[in-house]
């Protein structure tokens, strides 16, 4: 939403988690070191930022909408790599430097005609410990009405899956971790373990399988995460009642995620954060 009066414009943006930002709408030149600059890039100077924006310097929009930085730069591709949340290093963001090598897991990138912001990926299923989980094919399908599907989003922390996908995934993981001590639920996590006193544990690999036959195997630290200092670890997926599923940033840590917008392809390249 925006409104202008006497040459000054206001904006307000509301997000799905209830957060919002309100302030002045402006344009500015954005420069990239010695790579040149882009004039008249639209941005907002937020004066009232509520919800999950506490402590944040700002919000960088990389979606498919007309006001995202990606579109304003007319980028044909971009990629980022999120370092581990406990790392002292910096994450990186590149524009127009797509390199989907042989070690990259590629997947179809799809757009929703009803919602231009989200990046949908062609997901065919998931596996635990090398065994495919029994998930209905419709669980990840984007239908002609613009409902359903699964998006890749660096602004969502925990991967949210439709209940009909989450329940069998969780059950398969629990079945293969019977040697670990279950403990009570924590916040949005319903499957947690007491790993106190253990130097290391072995857990089954969780993988995403894409529509073109490739699979992305997650590191254990991306789906079994500590939630306190007492040794409680939780299975880092959560159910959603929405028809839309989301691959969040905890699952993306340590993987270079590439959006080849010109060719409608996505790439996942583990351990390519430099």
Question: What would your notes on this structure say?
Answer:
The protein has 274 residues and is mainly β. It is 8% helix and 39% strand. It has helices at 69-72, 163-175, 249-252, and strands spanning 2-5, 8-14, 20-31, 37-50, 77-81, 92-95, 105-110, 120-121, 123-128, 131-132, 150-152, 159-162, 182-183, 192-194, 206-210, 215-217, 224-226, 232-235, 237-240, 245-247, 255-260, 265-270. The strands form six sheets. A six-stranded antiparallel β-sheet has the order 6-5-21-22-7-8, with no helix packed on it. A four-stranded antiparallel β-sheet has the order 1-2-3-4, with no helix packed on it. It is globular and about 65 Å long.
Task: Provide a brief overview of the structure.
The two termini are 38 Å apart. Helix content is 8%, strand content 39%.
Task: List its salient traits.
mainly beta; 6-stranded antiparallel sheet; globular
List the helices and strands and how they pair.
Blueprint: E1 2-5, E2 8-14, E3 20-31, E4 37-50, H1 69-72, E5 77-81, E6 92-95, E7 105-110, E8 120-121, E9 123-128, E10 131-132, E11 150-152, E12 159-162, H2 163-175, E13 182-183, E14 192-194, E15 206-210, E16 215-217, E17 224-226, E18 232-235, E19 237-240, E20 245-247, H3 249-252, E21 255-260, E22 265-270
Parallel strand pairs: 11-20, 12-19
Antiparallel strand pairs: 1-2, 2-3, 3-4, 5-6, 5-21, 7-8, 7-22, 9-10, 9-15, 13-14, 14-18, 15-16, 17-18, 21-22
